[in-house]
Description:
Blueprint: H1 8-25, H2 34-63, H3 66-98, H4 122-127, H5 134-140, H6 143-157, H7 162-188, H8 190-207, H9 212-217, H10 222-249, H11 254-260, H12 262-271, H13 274-289, H14 293-306, H15 309-325, H16 332-348, H17 355-366, H18 381-406
Helix pairs in contact: 1-8, 1-12, 2-6, 2-7, 2-8, 2-13, 2-14, 3-10, 3-15, 3-16, 3-18, 8-12, 10-15, 10-18, 12-13, 12-18, 13-14, 13-18, 14-18, 15-16, 15-17, 15-18, 16-17
Aspartic acid is lined by residues 272-274, 308, 311, 349, 351-356, 385, 388-389, 392.
Amino acid sequence: MKIPKIQLHWQILLGLLLGLLYGLFLTNYVYLIEWMGEVFLRALRMIIIPLILTSIITGITQIGSGKSLGKLGLKTLVYYVSTSMVAILTGLFLVNMIQPGKGADLGFTQKVEGLDIESGSFGRTLIEIIPTNIFEAFSDGKMLSVIFFALIFGFFITQTNDKHKTLLNDFFQAAFEVIMKITLLIIRFTPFGVFGIIAGNIARILNEQGSGMSALLELGSSLGLYMITVFLGLVIHAFFTLPVIQRFIGKVNPYKHFQAVSTPLITAFSTSSALATLPLTLEAVEHRDGVSNKISSFTLPLGATINMDGTALYECVAAMFIAQAYGLELGFAQQVIIVITALIASIGAAAVPMAGLFMIAIILSAIGLPLEGIGLIVAVDRILDMFRTATNVWSDTTGAVVIARSEGEQLKKGLRV
Ligand code: ASP
């Protein structure tokens, strides 16, 4: 008898569901299976730096001239900034309508460690993109510096003589192919990885004091309302705004595209890290959407690092919620400051779990609110992080297909409308 083959995304969903049940009912035994999640995450992290390096370099050498690189770069940035902006405005509208923080009880739920770290100025952050030691950037995982170096390295390959150009192109192409083969192997283990991660997370949430669970149960409380506001905003952005962009600007069937990238989406949801998901995102967008390596390897690593629509929306709602809880009536000018700083915070946030939570400090300092306000929302952050990370990756993939279409690419059959 032939055993029917279950498609990978169903296997991953099954892993997620079983992880949920295991975490709920066998909470004290998660240590038996948590290693699966750790092995999976370690393997993903292992290939991120070589993947970013080889994919960007091969992408840039294919783009060729400085002029087309500039055009593509500009298009990509315009997409990133405008979708994040729409996400923020969606959040702003909802938080003003629902007013979750009005009359909130200011009993802080948890102390947030590491909040006293001064967030550097935006100018400083920009300067520090240039690494003083590229190997330090690799080993510390400074993604923007790695991307910066890969961009200029790739660009100057195109400026060398034919002999060297061919040699380096072949070398990086070959290295990229090897890394993608390793990626494919890791992807096969995603169902187990997701199972381990979800079970571990559920157990941790259940064991934590003042956990998000109680907020989930008390949906009428201000924290519950705050969660609903963020959640609603993410749903609107993910199920309305981005599909409209896919359909009308990218001329792509949103449902088909969703199917193509379902594996990275579930992985983003489970790992809460757009960066850890990047290998899977690249594989899906290239092989299942049919976006060229030239476009995907340029837009996706950059997108994972700086394009975070879900985080941007969340930053805005969270800062407004805290302001409301402090009884502050924010006028138009202050709300504009929140919008701008939320955009900066989302660009600056690292694509790792809970990075967005700490970036709220930038917004709170800009409007003169105490940073302790973050203590109000920390309890429910882990849950929201899963949803905003999935939205971040959904927007990255949308950017890749939209830009590919604008460059005249045909994508896979059935994806075009
Ligand atoms: N976890 C998010 C991501 O990796 C960042 C955040 O905390 O908002 O995309």
